[in-house]
């Protein structure tokens, strides 16, 4: 992808409304390599919906979404799956397969979407686990881990595989302040390699931090996506 091309481009997006809900407002967003958008969204369901939208999983009434120069609606399913292998995501609800151990859960998206060597992936995942405060890749199931360790596992899974785009339904959310520093370090490293980042938060711990390294601050609500007003 040329260096000047957007990583993610939402152009005059008009999503189809969910049954019984009003039509969302039009959405525009352009993220270049290394950009970080901090999005204030107070409803957990809306944050997940927006991450799905960026991933090409929400039907549209109009507009276009392009990821790495490819329009989601114009690529075949197998190519779309490969593109999603370039997206690292933290799910607010975990998104774990309960009958699998956590090591397999963490590796599974990359094993499914890419052709990366499993041994190399496991080594990289172990390095990330240490960085986020885990003693290694957990072999327990999700139900056997603490909420903090599950959040750490979510971070490992999201940053595995050198993602071009990170969609973070923030694991911090005012609960796990100890994750903020290693998460920002991992984000800085990913941005240095050209990744764009969308951090979706409902936590004042993050949103009110004026030192947060965001290229833009946005509010996501039922009327769409709008720049946040600056305050002193």
Give a short synopsis of this structure.
With 232 residues, the protein is of the alpha/beta class. 32% of the residues lie in helices and 23% in strands.
What does this structure look like?
The longest helix is centred in the middle third of the chain and has 14 residues, at 118-131. This protein has one domain (32-55, 80-227): 3-Layer(aba) Sandwich (Rossmann fold), CATH 3.40.50. It has 232 residues and is α/β, with parallel strands linked by helices. It contains 7 helices and 10 strands. The mean pLDDT is 89. The N and C termini lie far apart (38 Å). The protein has helices at 44-54, 77-84, 102-113, 118-131, 147-159, 180-192, 204-207, and strands at 8-15, 27-31, 36-40, 60-67, 70-71, 87-90, 165-169, 196-201, 216-221, 224-227. It has a 6-stranded mixed beta sheet, with helices on both faces. A 4-stranded antiparallel beta sheet has the order 2-1-4-5, with no helix packed on it. A hairpin with a 2-residue loop joins strand 9 and strand 10.
